[in-house]
From TrEMBL:
Entries under Pfam families matching the protein: GST_C, GST_N
Primary enzyme class: transferase
CDD domains given in the database record: GST_C_Tau (cd03185), GST_N_Tau (cd03058)
E.C. no: 2.5.1.18
Domain of life assignment: Eukaryota
MF annotations from Gene Ontology: glutathione transferase activity
Name used for this protein in its record: Probable glutathione S-transferase
Similarity annotation: Belongs to the GST superfamily. HSP26 family.
Domain GST C-terminal: residue ranges: 87-210
Amino acid sequence: MGEVKLLGGLGFSPYVNRVEMALKLKGVEYEAIAEDLKNKSPLLLQYNPVHKKVPVLIHDGKGIAESLIIVEYIDQVWEGPSILPKDPYQRAMARFWAKFIDEKCISATWKACWSTGEEQAKSKDESVEALKFLEDEIKGKKFFGGDNIGLVDIAANFIGYWLPIISEVKGVQLLTEEDFPNLWRWANEYCSDNFVKEILPNKEALVARFKSR
Ligand SMILES: N[C@@H](CCC(=O)N[C@@H](CS)C(=O)NCC(=O)O)C(=O)O
């Protein structure tokens, strides 16, 4: 198995949560290393000099950055439940939706919560447009990965857990049961999973953090 360390593993980050979830699913033991993003450690700068962001996985002294790439690495290196589908087409589709979530959903919904005025209105429209695609994609399925949690579920953890909390703190209505019943059901299903519950940050702590921003 080798020595596994997760940089950023003791903070609040939906991206770090993705890696924690993949490690949990595979049953990989690891050391979580805290990172102060306001005063980045020499270890972070050494292992992720390009982006200087967490998460970074350090496996036997080799560093891997970017959460989705780390999740794929974990899936390939360790035995256990598959995170990506084996079928090449389904695999490509999973990557497509994970990329879509990163590029279209997270930034738009984040901006919709934290901006004001015209920028907020524009981001809200973009968020609704993007979330509608996910609403269609999850229809009739328990998880994006089918019966089990897969890459897209892990990628979408921000939508399932963090977004409803931030929306509540900021009083912005985005992912409502009325507008997105399938996505709403998925979010509840995902957050009720035993592994997911173990890695998600405590809600009260997250609320306090966002209130103090
Ligand atoms: N695309 C990256 C995003 C990671 C990211 O944005 N991490 C944040 C913490 S949530 C970070 O390290 N921010 C520090 C900075 O931007 O300087 C990934 O998927 O890993």
